[in-house]
Amino acid sequence: xxxxxxxxRRLYGETEDFSDPFQRRxxxxxxxxxxxxxxxxxFLQLVSLEDELLADTMESEGGxxxxxAFPALLRDAESSxxxxxxxxxxQPDGSLALLVAVPxxxxxxSGWIVAGFLADDELAKNFRDMTGVEVSFVVPGAGxxxxxxxxxxxx
Length: 155
Prior knowledge:
By secondary structure, the protein is of the alpha+beta class. Helix content is 29%, strand content 32%.
């Protein structure tokens, strides 16, 4: 689990200026290194306790910290027994992703690591294989609902 990874915790703890492009690229590199070892994660994000997006594997050249788009996910984690949360969210590009938030512990919670799993046909297939039922991910929109991914019959 990355939130317990000593090397990444040290990297985060030694970062002095999250707006510095070099330090941000170093954090993104650390996140990308870990993401490459995760089987299905589409992206990883590092979020401060103040809900600022500090690093994102999908945007390696981002500027300074930006507001994290899904603060309700973090509130869910803060109020849970194990300090974790997961929920589906529509991403800024319109895709659907399962987001999982875990605390970064130094040893107290110092930030959040958010793993994103795009809701694609492969994720639908994995859910189908686990549950034995056909799975579809449907996203509501202004023009009506659309199917983001499916495994099995779509009605």
